[in-house]
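Notes taken during the Thursday session

The instructor put the following on the board and asked us to keep it in front of us for the whole hour. The protein is DNA-binding protein. We were told not to look anything up and to reason only from what is written here. First, the residues (63 in total):
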Amino acid sequence: MAMSNDVILATDARELSEALGCSPDTLEDMRVQGVLASRGELWEVGPARDYLRDAAWADNLWS
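Then, after some discussion, the predicted structure tokens were revealed:
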């Protein structure tokens, strides 16, 4: 799987949650797992987007 190096500016969890289209709880889970990395207010979201895409795909297999 190719890693994406997308970086966005988000000043708080709400903005980051909206940018990724996921809940704040999911954000926290991704931070704990090391999928989401912060550089101050800049967030490297490429791996997080890959994670969310793969989770959505896997969820459709069992739905």
